[in-house]
Every structure is written in C-alpha cells, then in structure tokens.
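Quick check before the chapter quiz. The format below is the same one you will see on the exam, so make sure you can read both the input and the output lines.
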Amino acid sequence: MSDSPKTLLLVDGSSYLYRAYHALPDLRNGEGLPTGAIYGMINMLRKLRNDYPAEYSACVFDAKGKTFRDELYPAYKEHRPSMPEDLARQIEPIHEAVRALGWPIVVVDGVEADDVIGTLARQACEQGVRTVVSTGDKDLAQLVNNEVTLVNTMSGEVLDPAGVNNKFGVPPERIVDYLSLIGDAVDNVPGVPKVGPKTAVKWLTEHGTLDAIMANADSIKGVVGENLRNTLDWLPRRASWSPSRPTAI
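Here is the expected output.
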C-alpha cells in the first residue's frame, strides 16, 4: 500500500466562469441562448482533472449577495460592473454541468469563494492531504506552503513557496502584509498611497512584518512615510479581513 499523501483539487469556480466567458466567442445554441462560458468551463475542468489527478475535488463559487466585507467596508468592489447578462444566464447551467462532471459544488452564504478555499486548504493540511488550488487570484498566494500549491491554467504558472517569493518578493506568509500596503484596485481596496510593490517589498525586507512597519512608521521619511502614518488606522482593519482568511464552513 502506498504511503504517499492524497490530494485535494480545489477550483476557484467564480474565477473560472469569468475566464471561460471572456476567452470564447459568442457561442449560442439553437434557441439563441449563450453557451460559451458553459463550453469553456467544461473543457477547462476536464483538462485540469487530467493534468492534476486527485482523490478529492471541489469547485467553489461565490454566493449571491453581500459578504461580511461589505459590512466592514461598504466601498468594497463597488466600482465593479454587474455580471454581464449573457454570463448570468449561464450560471445555473454551469452549476449543472459541473455537477454532471462529478465535481462537488461548494457555495457558502456571506463569504467569498476565496475564504472557503482557504478554509478547505487549511483543513486538508491538518489532515495530511496535499492541496492544489486552481485560480488566477493573487490573494490566494497567501495559502501556499509545502502542502498547498497554486496553478494558473491560463498562464501555466505553478506557485510553490519559492515561486511566490520569486513572483512577489515576499514569502506566502507575508502576502497579506504586502497586499495591505499596496492595496487592490480590482477590489477597490486602498493601501498606502504612493506605495507600490517595490516599496512594500523594501519595507517588509527591512522590518519583517506589517506590524513592525507600523511600529516604526515615524522613522520612515518622505511622502510615503507621511502617507503610511496617515493610514495606520486603516491598515490593521484591511489586513484582518484579507481574502482567503479561514472561515467556518
């Protein structure tokens, strides 16, 4: 009997369906209903399962409605356009197709797919199960460790701990600190004004953690130092609800 650990394959379904929708032309069935995202999703999941065989798997989607982040920060993602109608019409058929392919679907009200993926990956690690997460979301880089790997099927990128460090300049355990400093325009979440990846990496290399940077804010000179001091009240709040934080499911 083999003693090799089993593998859990997790798919960021919400990321996948948008990718499928934008990657394919405007495909429709005989009744004129859009089908491109359905077709793309099916092909992507088939290839993923072929490339990454696993004993366990799940496809995780965002739930409808607001999450706890909207309560804490009302401007969260407020600038994002609504889901295109042609994609919205394909959501239920996509769920049906995913189930038909044998993938369990996980949707948890009040939290995002990232949070559910983070929780499942954490639980798998505790049980000695390796995890492969398929996503294009940089926030999930914080999950990476010796037992959790990220794969981006669109770019072919595979991130282990060394890969995260090479890509971002910080290890996985500092990704939350890094993102808190630079902010995230995609989610309409501010960081420290005028602080980009290079400055964030420099500060984290010098001080080690976001807490240490904040503790030494008075020693950081120039406009960025002033901006840091002006955001000291915001930074802990931002870091505390970072996407993919473990949550009860």
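If your answer matched, good. The beta strands are 7-12, 56-60, 105-106, 130-134, 148-152, 157-159.
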